[in-house]
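Shape matters. Shown next:

___
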Amino acid sequence: MSSYRERLWPSIWIYLATALVIPASILVLAPVNLTAGIIAAAVLFIGLTGIFIVLAPVIEVKDGMLIAGKAQIPLELLGTPSIFKGGAATLQRGQRLDARAWLCLRGWVDPVIKIPLEDPDDPTPYWLVSSRNPEGLAAALSA
């Protein structure tokens, strides 16, 4: 049974920005054929929206494992998580990021949680994971 589960869905503004392919496709293809432009616009918008939905990673704590996207790790190998929001989260994703860290980040989710690894055989120092509810994730990791 899962003690925490979150899917990192894109924000509404991502879908609104993606809608810009509609007029762009029509504008490009209208001189050739308006119907082709409308069909291409619909196919592109639906395809991009589908890609965003299918590729949205799941962050989950269940059965003694942390699952973030396609990766998973036993909870006993994890240290005490740290939560970062706003400017501190931006620094963790940028200037203070260790190149060896494992990342499950989405640009449309501001808060991140930094989870140190305590496995001496693993060269990865920590996982950095986007979460809309980092307090809930930290509580599930600590439980």
Q: What stands out?
A: The helical segments are 12-18, 21-29, 34-54, 86-93, 134-142.
